[in-house]
Amino acid sequence: xxxxxxxxxxxxxxxxxxxxxxxxxxxxxxxxxxxxxxxxxxxxxxxxxxxxxxxxxxxxxxxxxxxxxxxxxxxxxxxxxxxxxxxxxxxxxxxxxxxxxxxxxxxxxxxxxxxxxxxxxxxxxxxxxxxxxxxxxxxxxxxxxxxxxxxxxxxxxxxxxxxxxxxxxxxxxxxxxxxxxxxxxxxxxxxxxxxxxxxxxxxxxxxxxxxxxxxxxxxxxxxxxxxxxxxxxxxxxxxxxxxxxxxxxxxxxxxxxxxxxxxxxxxxxxxxxxxxxxxxxxxxxxxxxxxxxxxxxxxxxxxxxxxxxxxxxxxxxxxxxxxxxxxxxxxxxxxxxxxxxxxxxxxxxxxxxxxxxxxxxxxxxx
Length: 366
Known about the structure:
Layout: H1 8-35, H2 39-44, H3 48-58, E1 63-65, E2 71-73, H4 80-91, H5 96-123, H6 125-136, H7 150-165, H8 169-179, H9 186-204, H10 209-217, H11 220-233, H12 238-245, H13 254-261, H14 265-287, H15 292-306, H16 315-318, H17 327-334, H18 338-360
Antiparallel strand pairs: 1-2
Helix pairs in contact: 1-5, 1-6, 1-18, 3-4, 4-5, 5-6, 5-7, 6-17, 7-8, 7-9, 8-9, 8-10, 9-10, 9-15
């Protein structure tokens, strides 16, 4: 598999995705001008973006001690994104923060392309186009315009999954290894490749050498960084200790349950309804008979996002790489005529942009 020249439907997917992000940026610019805020600073200079820039400029080794004694270490952040920031800022006349935006925006287009190819492979070119656009209007899609890792990880994941669908296992493993240097969520992608290979073995009673190689390569990025942190800190569990200090330990969903129980009952009911909708979408993904690697990746990303003790407000964006969740509505919307489909997608883009501007200009982290 290679990145062949885009055809008409690919250009439609990329164009549609780009329009959704431009709408998001335009609405943010208008809202920032009205409120007197700096919208660009919110995209590249706050929250996790600051940590990535610091790593890009100075390497690892920075810690913050909170008033309660908790220590937040920059070792919680995987290295590929800041490495790209550093490399790009070295060859272009931009600082690392701006380089982060360039990486994120470029990766967003590459992700949309890969998502389109996966959707087209499974359900036809039109469904692939709609899928790419829907990913651009995901409720927390404003993160795709920030100097965050979501677009880079999703690009690597989507093309890794597409490589599996095309039988290019070694390429899939290499892309998965790169994803493992980007986000811990790569565990779901590693599982997708491993389970797909296992099913292939059971079905065919044999496993091609290329498939074995791809499966063995896939976890090397994630494992490599975990080992690096362990060696650096002198403890085999150091990476997990670092994450636990950030409140990101795996607790099987206990923190989520406590969060729901601590809400006023109307908010708790609303959140339970949202989780029920999520469960319904996952059931639709299974009934839709999505390609196995895409389905396993989707379920894995959702589970990883729900079973940790992380800040609850971050969980919707942590699920964003699970683009398989959008395949059922994408296939349904693809049946509409263009004159009905266009206003639906436009309305979703505006709603996503308005929510993004509200969140970015607010006080809480995304």
